[in-house]
Design a protein that fits this description.
Largest sheet: none
Structural class: mainly alpha
Mean pLDDT: 83
Distance between the termini: 79 Å
Shape: elongated
Helix content: 55-70%
Low-confidence stretches: none
Number of helices: 7
Length: 191
Amino acid sequence: MFKRRSATVEATAEPEVISGKGRATPSRKEAEAARAARVKPPKDTREAKRLERTRVAEQRAIARKAMAAGDPRYLAARDRGAARAWIRNYVDARWSPGELVLPAAFLLFVLATAVGPLAQLIFYVFVVAVVFDSVVLARRISHHVKTHFPDEPLKGLRMYGILRASQIRRLRMPKPQVSRRPLFTRKLHQD
């Protein structure tokens, strides 16, 4: 009853097909040791803080890349929603004087010593152009959001578009997903 099988019986058996994870299941002792090594905190608190900082930095880097790419799971609360995505694309597809305010202000500050009051006048004209563009942008956003997203409340959407238009394009977050249209086109950006 409890005899050993002969070698001939083992040779005739078919070879086992390996499927699944492709490695042997660790023994209980090995699994518990591995778990204890993962769970066990470092003896040194400095080492623990360093490990935590590196872990958090890695998670932030992943989240930053995903947010820059426009992944909805990683977007900030202010950037979530279909209406805000449409506004981002609408603003990113157009030229606006708001994104040139900082470079122009720096350039006019440097030139102020040479040109004097003319630099101030140019800057004031620039500010008036930004205000005019912001009013036009707010009206267009209102119109298009009411058309495309009738259930979406307008609260905060116009200011979202104006603030995005006032940022330098390269520094906008999430990164622009659309290319700019030519400067002098009469067509409105349609989604």
